[in-house]
Design goal:
Elements lengths: L2 H20 L2 H11 L12 H7 L7 H18 L1 H4 L6 H19 L27 H16 L6 H39 L6 E6 L6 E8 L2 E8 L4 E4 L3 E2 L10 H9 L4 E6 L2 E6 L12 E8 L2 E9 L1
Antiparallel strand pairs: 1-2, 2-3, 3-4, 3-5, 6-7, 7-8, 8-9
Helix pairs in contact: 1-2, 1-6, 1-7, 1-8, 2-6, 4-6, 7-8
């Protein structure tokens, strides 16, 4: 999800855990901790594909973040030593204040299309539930309103009401995530119906929202070297099936190592094509409505009749 969503989610959860004891500070602590997993974007990468596939890897792993929460816990105890002696807060509550914003960050990311390696260093494909758009105001606004209201009223007589509003904001956002899962299952049924009506088999299907809303959905259906796009509008109860497209593996004259990484990371939802004498791989999952795809990579270059792998470049 986008950074704003992660910040307000971390702040909201932290406030629910310890606002009564630590007040406004919990909003800051939650925001900082919820931001830390995304600092992997600052790490150097050897090429564009590596940067793409290693984002949301070890910094988003529950196997890493849970023990890292203990480090944050001890740091917080040291940094707030004097203040903690004045408030009645248990060690367990203080630990969960550190742990919850950290682990909910990758768990929220897993609901998007990109893919999150929740169980790194295990080599299972990244988790991509794909039931919410990467930036959806309808998810973020309840959290943002709750956090802002709580920040403004942390030191006055309205703080009890502000805590309830913050709790309500988190509840509404969680309900929105649940709604996305329920609507995604309805889209799956509609996609299955249109495939059955057109006598199309399927090896695998990827369904995700096309816009920051849970009304417009898209599905990629792969069947034996070809794929179809299906667009569904739930409000209008319409669905549209595209013509058949070739995945492009038949033209493959070289199999660059980067393609193996992309194939694993996207669970095979990759299209290959030749553009300007270059072999270009496109992530079919990451599309916004009728716009072009978000991630394309040049992996090889053709010279005469021969292909040679190149350092991957994002187009």
């Amino acid at each position: 999800m986008d950074s704003v969503s992660q910040i307000v989610l971390g702040s909201s959860i932290a406030a629910i855990i310890a606002h009564k004891q630590l007040g406004r500070s919990t909003l800051v602590i939650g925001a900082v901790l919820a931001t830390l997993p995304d600092l992997d974007v600052l790490l150097p990468a050897t090429d564009a594909v590596t940067r793409f596939t290693e984002h949301r890897s070890f910094t988003h792993s529950l196997f890493v973040l849970f023990p890292f929460a203990f480090i944050c816990y001890f740091f917080l105890k040291l940094f707030l030593k004097e203040r903690l002696t004045k408030v009645a807060i248990s060690n367990q509550r203080l630990f969960w204040l550190c742990c919850s914003p950290l682990i909910t960050h990758p768990m929220l990311d897993a609901f998007t299309s990109y893919g999150t390696q929740l169980f790194w260093p295990l080599t299972i494909p990244p988790i991509s539930i794909a039931s919410i758009f990467a930036a959806d105001p309808l998810y973020t606004l309840p959290l943002l309103i709750g956090c802002v209201y709580l920040w403004r009223n942390s030191d006055n007589q309205n703080k009890y009401k502000a805590r309830r509003i913050n709790y309500l904001g988190l509840t509404l956002s969680c309900a929105y995530l649940l709604l996305g899962l329920l609507l995604q299952s309805q889209v799956q049924q509609k996609v299955n119906a249109i495939l059955l009506a057109n006598h199309i088999a399927q090896d695998k299907t990827f369904i995700s929202p096309l816009y920051p809303s849970l009304n417009w959905w898209g599905a990629i259906v792969i069947d034996n070297g070809v794929y179809y796009n299906v667009e569904v509008n739930l409000l209008l109860n319409t669905s549209e099936l595209s013509v058949k497209h070739d995945l492009g593996y038949g033209q493959l004259g070289v199999y660059p190592p980067a393609l193996r990484s992309l194939d694993w990371f996207t669970n095979g939802f990759i299209r290959l094509e030749t553009l300007n004498e270059q072999l270009v791989a496109t992530d079919l999952r990451m599309k916004t409505g009728q716009l072009d795809y978000a991630f394309k990579f040049a992996l090889a270059k053709k010279s005469g009749e021969h292909w040679s792998a190149i350092t991957p470049v994002r187009l």
